[in-house]
Amino acid sequence: MPLFDQLFNFAHWLAQDRTEAEDLVQETYVKALKGFSSFQPGTNFRAWMYRILRNTFLTSRTGLKASATIPLDSEDGPELPAGPETPETILIEYSQSQILQTAIESLPIHFREVLLLCEVEEMSYQEIAETLSIPMGTVMSRLSRARRALRESLQQKLART
Amino acid sequence: MADEWTAKLETYLDGELSAGEMRDLDAHLRSCPSCAAGVISRIQIKRAVHSAGKRYSPSAEFRQRIRKSIATKPGVSPIRMWLAATAAVALLLIAGLVTFTVRQQQLQRRQTFSELADLHVATLASANPVDVISTDRHTVKPWFQGKIPFTFILPELQNSEFTLIGGRVTYLGQAPGAELIYQVRKHQISVFIFQNRNAGHDLGSGSSSLQQLSFNIESWNQDSLRYFVIGDASSNDIRNLADLLKKAR
Question: pTM (2 decimals)?
Fold first, then answer.
């Protein structure tokens, strides 16, 4: 089954629950098979599958709840300037992946998904734009904000330990 | 200024800057310890997120359950499912390969045209832009004998707006070639001619025209030679000179 492991990982990050992730993946495959005739050859199959999964999540109870918490600040503005460099002492702590995973989990859903598609799935900005159905400019600004939020969350968590 | 570079570091590491911006930032990083440190810390975060993000795996039972549920779904036979999945993977691979190849070719084309634009500007800025000064093609062409490993045909310019100024030996990708300078009104135009296998950077076999750094460029293959016509003259002028060269016999 194409993309099975990747889709499950992404679904779990979105839903933050194994059973819900399994339901999402199952529904994604069923929808994909039913609508396979609507897939246009030559377009991006991976982005198509992820889009189905994400739309399925957004219409689920957890997804509706998560997307309702998206802040209203404009995302199409200029990208945020990068923050101060992270001290090396903190970088060493990144090896504590538990802290990093918790920091990713604590990101708002629209930051978490764009970060995971870029860093874990290694999608291009174009693919991410197709998957999330947003313009490329929004992908760039959202990614920039997601990274900044992750850095800040990490610094807070590490300061507490 | 440093802030301007810093803002681009993440896009740079994501491989999403244009070829020109990538080159500029590469050069900047060699001379800016602060940005170089910024790159290193961002790479570490990227790697850490990449590995921490691959956290969840489906259980074997779930995998089996999905296989079965899809296989037993009415109207969807296992063969059909297998064919659909195989076709999807094949499409994914083909689309990826095509995208990669097209991007590589575009990058190589841009690099070649950018180098030619540099050569053209360097020639115009030089105190001695040409090594053989003549408006007579029968003087300029023989001058190249023994200096480059091929010969070419220059067009008759009577009844045209173009004037031949002269020529010089030039290099692209360490291969020698001819650079001819033509004038049309107040514009100077460079015509570069290289052996096709050397000028290649895999530019393909067809003709192309485009704009690069405000210069108009025409390029084509003819008789195992690659021709480039580049200048700040209008695209019509560049095309007209290219047509004259193509018809030269």
Answer: 0.53
